[in-house]
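User: Okay, second chain of the day. Same drill as before: sequence in, structure tokens out.
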Amino acid sequence: MADKQISLPAKLINGGIAGLIGVTCVFPIDLAKTRLQNQQNGQRMYSSMSDCLIKTIRSDGYFGMYRGAAVNLTLVTPEKAIKLAANDFFRHMLSKDGKQLTLIKEMLAGCGAGTCQVIVTTPMEMLKIQLQDAGRLAAQQKLMTAQSAMSSPMESTISSASQATSTIKSPQTATQITKELLRSKGVAGLYKGLGATLLRDVPFSIVYFPLFANLNKLGQKSPDERAPFYVSFISGCIAGSTAAVAVNPCDVIKTRLQSLQRGVNEDTYSGIVDCTRKIWRNEGARAFLKGAYCRALVIAPLFGIAQVVYFLGIAETMLEMLPRRRD
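Assistant: Same drill. Structure tokens below.
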């Protein structure tokens, strides 16, 4: 992405390839992030990322860590393509005078990219979160049932256990969730949490793209040369992890708002302000950093891989080969 001129079709393909590779590599960590962010005080099922992954493998097997991955693998291509292509488009529009972009203009380009990508990101995250968190809710339900069976058979305890069982639905597929949302709430149902997604993705892009561009320049011997691929990879990792941690409070709010099902005695939220207030009051400021290191571990290689894909010019090579095949 640095100074290399890449055609729009190549940008779209590069973004898709980078997204697919990245999601495949880091999705289990993303699952742990979602479950850690959604658990509230008094209802803690997991103490850390490793504890979450170990318990997930024990209860659901190895592929349980990839629950919801199909949604990401399907939609990550257009999401990353829109994000990367939009950033390049806005950078081009803001540099028509031929001068080097200022930091403010780089941030504006990132803002535009983050705004464009939520068209795909919001429904993708909406479906992914339901599938990822289903395992946590099921585990919580089993634990409460076991605890109620071991305790004295008081009517209130039985009532509580039966309530826990009835409030949590059986796991659904992404298709079933989509149909249910469209039938009950229309297209707007898939865009629940749109404001929170914007609140996360716009600041992320404002931080990420200028930071990557300036870190990548440090590896350039001259303005006309590209930085080595390892510099682009490291720059992508540093910029991605920094931006991810910076906006993690917004990611926690977004995850809570987009979760359709709640565990027993867990708070419900009416909007961004209500969610922020309740998390601060009931869980403290540290709750806004839940899953921050998981998110950094997810985003860093994802965007580092994106830079390597761009450097290697995989899409350009594929497009150059197409005419030869026709011959």
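The radius of gyration is 22 Å.

User: Thanks, on to the next one.
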